[in-house]
Amino acid sequence: MNDKSITIFSDQEIQDYINSTLDGWSYDGKWIRKTFKTHSWKSTLMVVNSIGHLAEAAWHHPDLQISYAFVEVKLMNHAKKGITQLDFDLAKKIDDFILWNPKNDDSSLEGTPSDARFAYIKYEKK
Prior knowledge:
A hairpin with a 4-residue loop joins strand 1 and strand 2. It is built from 3 helices and 4 strands. The chain has 126 residues and is of the alpha+beta class.
């Protein structure tokens, strides 16, 4: 479907890109992956649905492993059997979307309360 040339990156190029651009992602020789920790099953489902929306909009689909309090995202270009710019771009979009916290913005939005009844994503400490 994509008329653009798709390049598969070398292991070193993948590691360099992750180190410079993608916080919390790793490369295992086949996939780039990241685990998002959540506070509950409801939060996990919200993350899965959000990633599903982004994947459909991008027309590039990750593999997901889900449990009560986490979602693991694995990306690789299935058709090319390697890591491509599509994987990096979707990883960045997923991070930007899932880890957005209005508490870090100059915004009138207050963000999810820390009360356990309402807690959502376990945001990474910076």
